[in-house]
Design goal:
Blueprint lengths: L6 H16 L7 H11 L9 H13 L5 H9 L4 H12 L14 H8 L14 H16 L7 H10 L3 H8 L4 H9 L1
Length: 186
């Protein structure tokens, strides 16, 4: 499948891995894919305010990745999610819901550390099911449009087809499937 990716799309996937590494995450997520597209300027033509979009992604991450729809459903039940997040952060520190899970130490890493040897760099970085589905969907979108290659617009369209906070934040910033498809056709 990656042989169909343009150099920009490959760069987006590589930068998504770099985003995950920088965030000290164990996997590459759809959010990392979006952040890499932002970094590459793939949303610039749509007039997206990258810092504002990044801040909204951070806010969604801060509430544990729960979508606004789920937050509203909880509010209908009398559960104030912002109050819960505040209490968790009071107890465990700010960003407790966004912090990556602590990595489990193995005897090998402890021994390497004791000997003063650096941890070897990971060559393979796993993608979440959602990120994999996004990549697969980008191929389907390209094939459906009869495009020979998969570019960053196809990745963006694929992110918009996936339910969750990434597509929700994009929609909040006026990035819709129809708008991206129109820009792609132009």
């Amino acid at each position: 499948m990656f042989e169909r990716f343009t150099s920009d799309a490959r760069e987006a996937v590589s930068r998504a891995v770099a985003q995950a590494v920088a965030a000290r995450a164990d996997t590459v997520t759809e959010e990392h894919l979006l952040l890499s597209l932002l970094e590459l300027g793939a949303l610039d033509a749509l007039g997206v305010d990258a810092p504002a979009l990044t801040a909204d992604l951070e806010a969604a991450r801060r509430r544990g990745g729960i979508s606004r729809v789920d937050e509203e459903a909880l509010a209908d039940l009398g559960i104030d999610l912002s109050e819960i997040v505040s209490r968790i952060e009071e107890t465990h520190g700010e960003g407790a819901l966004t912090a990556p899970a602590p990595r489990r130490r193995s005897l090998g890493s402890s021994l390497r550390e004791a000997l003063g040897r650096p941890e070897p760099k990971r060559r393979h970085f796993p993608f979440t099911q959602g990120a994999k589905k996004t990549l697969e969907q980008s191929l389907r979108i390209a094939l459906g449009r009869k495009d020979r290659h998969i570019g960053t617009p196809h990745l963006l369209l694929a992110l918009l087809t996936r339910p969750g906070t990434v597509s929700e934040v994009l929609a909040d910033h006026g990035v819709t499937y129809a708008r991206v498809e129109t820009a792609l056709a132009a």
